[in-house]
Amino acid sequence: MAPPAASQRYPSPSQPSGKSEVTDLKSQLRQLAGSRAPGVDDSKRDLFKKVISYMTIGIDVSSVFGEMVMCSATSDIVLKKMCYLYVGNYAKGNPDLSLLTINFLQRDCKDQDPMIRGLALRSLCSLRVPNLVEYLVGPLGSGLKDNNSYVRTIAVTGVLKLYHISASTCIDADFPATLKSLMLHDSDAQVVANCLSALQEIWSLEASHSEEACREKESLLSKPVIYYFLNRIKEFNEWAQCLILELAVKYVPSDSNDIFDIMNLLEDRLQHANGAVVLATVKVFLQLTLSMTDVHQQVYERIKSPLLTLVSSGSPEQSYAILSHLHLLVVRAPFIFASDYKHFYCQYNEPAYVKKLKLEMLTAIANESNTYEIVTELCEYAANVDIAIARESVRAVGKIALQQYDVNAIVDRLLQFLEMEKDYVTAETLVLVKDLLRKYPQWSHDCISVVGGISSKNIQEPKAKSALIWMLGEYAQDMSDAPYILENLIENWEEEHSAEVRLHLLTAAMKCFFKRPPETQKALGIALAAGMADFHQDVHDRALFYYRVLQYDVHVAERVVSPPKQAVSVFADTQSSEIKDRIFDEFNSLSVVYQKPSYMFTDKEHRGPFEFSDEIGNIPITPEASGDIVPAQQFEANDKDLLLSTDEKDDNKGVSITGSAYTAPSHDNSNISSQMQELAISGPATSAATPQSSFDFDDIFGLGLSTAPAPTPSPPLLKLNPRAALDPGAFQQKWRQLPISLTQDCSVNPQGIAALTVPQSLIKHMQSHSIHCIASGGQSPNFKFFFFAQKESEPSSNYFTECVINSSSAKAQIKVKADEQSTSQAFATVFETALSEFGMP
């Protein structure tokens, strides 16, 4: 069947077919304005619906303003609502047209129907035109005295709107006093609640420049007013109850009897079905009893059951909010919830964010009586298909082990994780075993016997590999293969992209050398040479430091690098007690959910603005010349100048020494001290007289640094596209879709921090390394940048980076997301290298 001809098609009822459509509406409305024919209200409804639909989709229909006002002379409440909606939308942008509405709105404010009176008064106060405030005072005064509670409720809200339009008009009309009288004497609970909310806002704003307002604000916290609200609290809806309970938190009771009276009045609010009311009541109980230790502990027992009920009966979102508050309470009083640990077992159908919080709860309440059951449950989660939850469960077992005294069974469970043959479980376990050995050195024999059987080739995660390397260095005397494992790792130095791992390799090689010098001597020499040629600033500096201290005196180096260690009694907490107390003071707020005080996510200083820079994102950027970067050879030569004294530099001109191959003798514990004595270099008092000692030192370790040029740092394995371009919208979409591949912290050199006063300089610097900025924001001391890069050989392979730099601590946190996650570490190395060179001449 053929489509109808153009002349036969009808326009959509929500889309005008042309400019004449609005003109037709205007003429039709004018015809109906004075008509009283039967069915005229139905016709008006159809036309009003068209006007509202056009207005909704953004078509300007302000030209029919007068006709809409004329058609409002009707008793049909539906027409009234649509007319008020139209008037409220166009009044603020057309102050002159708003004058046309005053008469009919004032007339409607005196209508016999209370619904129309309330709607008209609300629309009149919603005009928000400063020139019309004089017309609001009369209707508001009448509305506050209206016999109908709905009209009084609207009038109270209207007073607050009037205050924000013209505070002086509101105060001069003595509306706050009228609201106070209504609040204390009105029979309708909603009117009372609106009065309380309006007065709190008005007096809070006026208190900055009015002593009377300060006194009135304080009067809300007087005993008669508080008890008046608490005695009527059952009459209010949930929102109003929360408002009253927030007011009660600020009340200072006169004595203990006052406290118990308030708690008795609010006892039944703990059984309320609404979670907000329960949490607000809990906050009142906790704040009132802070000075009464015994009663405060009894409050924990009383509030425990209602909160646990809300966790199990609500939605996942409500469960998470309640659990966040429970976690705060558990941290303050873990023994109170110790017997209820089963409430925090994870359910199979719970979201990951709820499960993670429950694991934190189980960690916090674990003690001697329930540790076995909790650890048994957590071990089950380690085999979970959700890798993130499996990791968290392994961490939870480790945390429990670090806070308990009897850890026999827990250590056995942790070591069993190493036999699960799951890379992520093994990685998390190695990190925990390292911390466990730091606190319980007596378990080193059992742990090392199991760790020694793990192949370093199967460990890919930087933190896990660093933990393994730490154990190889710390317990080299107990692991027969430790020097050879370290030597194999050091020989693959260039393939190791993580600076953290390379730093641990340097330290482990030093520690192993002090324990087993013959077997580690060659590996240490390779590590020091590779470290001093490393392009990462921290790795280079540490290798240079080790080289200097070894050259100064081997025994001094041993005392510095590998001193006798004491067991760690307590690990540092991520949050200070002051911050925890601040969060507790902000109970029943987002601070508890975010686990940080409100100023950290509301103040501009901490949050920082964020803007997408479309110009940077859309323009292909050419790399800038990088000729000002100091070559590695020159950099190493400068270090060599620092390494030797002036006399040595003069004496060493023209001298060339080549290192000979070294064959390590068999390992013998009795020979360690003598080997070290042979390697010991004389101190500063004799070094000037024996310049040859530095050559002997370099020759012993096979470094050959005296005259041989330092090896050039290997270029990054990852090559980036210098002309990469990406649309900001595509960046945002990718950033939301891709998981975080890795998160790393690194240092920013002082010159870079100084240059960061102009953030654009960092953007240009990263561009010179083919890393482009698509968004930036923040202000001192916090700066945030979003970068992207593309693999040169594969344009479809993108890397996305969030870099947050704190200029006061000179630290940067880097989060990397990638289309090809296997190369994320390589890109992170390139990024850190570029960042470490920022600000350098």
UniProtKB/TrEMBL annotation:
Subcellular location per the Swiss-Prot or TrEMBL entry: Endomembrane system
Keyword set includes Acetylation: no
Biased composition (Polar residues): 9-25, 655-670
GO MF assignments: clathrin binding
Gene3D superfamilies for the chain: Leucine-rich Repeat Variant, TATA-Binding Protein
Pfam family, one: Adaptin_N
UniProt record, GO biological process: intracellular protein transport; vesicle-mediated transport
Region annotation Disordered: where it falls in the sequence: 1-25, 644-670
Keyword Membrane: yes
GO cellular component: clathrin adaptor complex; endomembrane system
Alphabetical keyword list: Membrane, Protein transport, Transport
Highest taxon, organism lineage: Eukaryota
Domain Beta-adaptin appendage C-terminal subdomain positions: 718-836
Subunit structure: Adaptor protein complexes are heterotetramers composed of two large adaptins (beta-type subunit and alpha-type or delta-type or epsilon-type or gamma-type subunit), a medium adaptin (mu-type subunit) and a small adaptin (sigma-type subunit).
Function: Subunit of clathrin-associated adaptor protein complex that plays a role in protein sorting in the late-Golgi/trans-Golgi network (TGN) and/or endosomes. The AP complexes mediate both the recruitment of clathrin to membranes and the recognition of sorting signals within the cytosolic tails of transmembrane cargo molecules.
Family: Belongs to the adaptor complexes large subunit family.
Protein name: Beta-adaptin-like protein
Native species: Brassica carinata (Ethiopian mustard)
